[in-house]
Amino acid sequence: MLRLAVATQQETFERIRDPLAVRDIEVVPVRASERTLSLSSPDLPSVDAGLVFPSRLMEGGAVSAALDVPWVNDREAILTSRNKAEVLAALSTAGVPTPETTLVSNPVDDDSVAAAAETLQTRTDTAELVIKPNSTTRGTGVARVADPDSLLGVTDYLDLVHDFRATGDRSFLLQEYLPDARDYRAMIVDGEYAGAVKRRLPEAETAAGKWKHNVHRGAVAEGVALSEAARELAERTADVLGIDYLGVDLLETDDRLVVNETNARPTVDDATKYEPGFYDRLAALIRKTAESR
């Protein structure tokens, strides 16, 4: 039986364990962070491949070196997808539609930020913008602003957080806000569409003024059948980025369909929300990865 190291969220581990077991793949948990690890004689399981490179790059690097196996999504794939600006620039250059976005390489002065926001608002003919840290996940630190004072207030907070945590990435994005956009997460496995969910907020949450569609922020993920255009867009995104196993976030309005973000560490949802052959294709990709060793 092939043994697969999994260092992703607990919910993904629980969901993929049994379906992969019946396909002769044993899912083995590997913890890369919040632990002690002897580098001289690391206490790690014997595995044939890994699913996705651990989220903490330093600890992940040590664990990956000790395991000495290929990953379905390696460090390069994780770094590429985590850099939202790089993803959007690559997709835009390849002709893949994305929201109008400006990268702010912090620190910059208030006048420069305000000028960039005004230019973006003029180009998109919209008053509201979304501001987000370039490397954020799960909607952390993402805000919606409609006036200069609110915008600069958010950047003030970003400056404080950056200084306190001495983070390596201080950049952030200014992005057009697409009101009433439908939010989808498409799953790509080995370059092909494998299913999708629509993420929506309960009506009570929307009525209360919430707008973020992240599941970890209270949104509900429902299995949907995407249009052919949306499927092709998600597949094209994975092809441009060169990432075999990818979550592609799509926003759709009445007249636009764009790629908003990607996730090379996607949470696996219930099997009923994916195409019937999802686990067969995932197992085949894992085996192909192990054979590349």
Number of contiguous helices: 9
N to C succession of SSEs: EHEEHEHHEHEEHEEEHEHEEH
| Poorly predicted segments | none
Q: Profile the largest sheet.
A: 5 strands, antiparallel
Kindly report the spatial arrangement of strands forming the biggest sheet: 11-10-9-12-13
CATH fold name of the domain at 179-275, please? Answer: D-amino Acid Aminotransferase, Chain A, domain 1
As a whole number of angstroms, the C-alpha radius of gyration is 20 Å
What is the number of beta strands? 13
Structural class: alpha+beta
How big a fraction of the residues is strand? 15-25%
Description:
Helices cover 37% and strands 24% of the residues. The chain is an alpha+beta fold and 293 residues long. The two termini are 16 Å apart. The mean pLDDT is 87. The radius of gyration is 20 Å and the shape is globular. The chain has a 5-stranded antiparallel sheet with strand order 11-10-9-12-13. It has helices at 10-21, 57-67, 75-82, 84-93, 110-124, 148-165, 203-207, 228-241, 278-291, and strands at residues 2-6, 25-29, 49-52, 71-73, 101-104, 129-133, 143-145, 172-176, 182-189, 192-200, 220-224, 245-252, 257-263.
